[in-house]
Design goal:
With 254 residues, this protein is α/β, with parallel strands linked by helices. The protein has one domain: Purple Acid Phosphatase, chain A, domain 2. Helices cover 35% and strands 19% of the residues. The protein has a 6-stranded mixed beta sheet with strand order 3-2-1-11-12-9. A 6-stranded mixed beta sheet has the order 4-5-6-10-7-8. α1 links the parallel β1 and β2. It is globular and about 55 Å long. It binds fe (ii) ion. The site of fe (ii) ion has 7 residues, from loops.
Length: 254
């Protein structure tokens, strides 16, 4: 069994709860699709835990912007990243910066894509792995060219995150949410699929529980895990410089 997590967003309580559930399920491998940082109260702890526990970790747009700048981010996301950068970036004059340097190098070295057999793993989209969004609305609007160009990069199944909403886009231009699938997607060999595992640390589908997926025998199970959302919202509210709206959206799952 492979467990796939994404969009941790510095939410260490959610990450810990998800990793406990993954251990209970007995997954042999954990793949993280990026966005370890941004938005939440505990970026350092999340980077350390992801480094320790995940076998493969990819680069998300927030991880990229932490290193290279968040000029095109909205002010709330940018402020939280500025705060995270102050906690993670090595300080040239400080002594014993080994831990910070190691974390920074880990984040800098994150790959953009990972392939295992006929599975492709990315943060955003197959053709533009770090920043492009693939949303339900793309399917509803019939953006065939965009979807087809992305499927060109996929052998059979692609796993992604980035939208913070779990769901499946098929090469037949269907969008399915886990509820419609009763939590299980059984892919057919006749069609390709892009499977969004949702977000551990900031779900946006009006369900505040942490989201992830597992793959076993080519079958995908979607999971939700409860954790102490109020405690994390309180930590965000208590962090100077971080917008209270980030706490509110966590409580509401939006
Ligand atoms: Fe994200």
């Amino acid at each position: 069994m492979i467990a796939v997590i994404s969009d941790v967003h510095a939410n260490h309580l959610a990450l810990t709860a998800v990793l406990e559930e993954i251990e209970r399920l007995g997954a042999e491998k954990i793949i993280c699709l990026g966005d370890i940082v941004g938005y939440g109260p505990e970026p350092v702890e999340c980077v350390d835990t992801v480094r320790q526990r995940c076998d493969i970790t990819l680069c998300g747009n927030h991880d990229f912007a932490l290193i290279y700048g968040a000029q095109d981010f909205n002010p709330i996301a940018r402020n939280s990243l500025d705060h995270h950068r102050s906690l993670l970036m090595p300080r040239p004059d400080a002594e014993d910066e080994t831990e910070r340097r190691d974390r920074w190098q880990f984040l800098k070295d994150l790959p953009y894509r990972h392939v295992e057999g006929e599975y492709l793993f990315v943060h955003g989209a197959p053709r533009n792995p770090v920043v492009e969004y693939l949303r339900k609305i793309d399917v509803l609007l019939g953006l065939k060219k965009k979807i087809a160009e992305n499927f060109q990069e996929v052998d059979w199944l692609c796993f992604n995150g980035h939208t913070h909403r779990a769901g499946v886009i098929t090469s037949d231009m269907e969008f399915l949410v886990p509820d419609e699938l009763r939590g299980v997607f059984e892919p057919s060999f006749q069609q390709k699929a892009i499977i969004n595992v949702g977000s551990v640390g900031q779900p946006r589908d009006h369900d505040s529980r942490a989201s992830f997926a597992t793959i076993q025998d080519d079958k995908v199970d979607f999971h939700r895990v409860e954790y102490d959302v109020e405690a994390v919202a309180a930590r965000i509210a208590a962090t100077p410089g971080m917008a209270h709206s980030l706490a509110d959206r966590l409580l509401e799952g939006r």
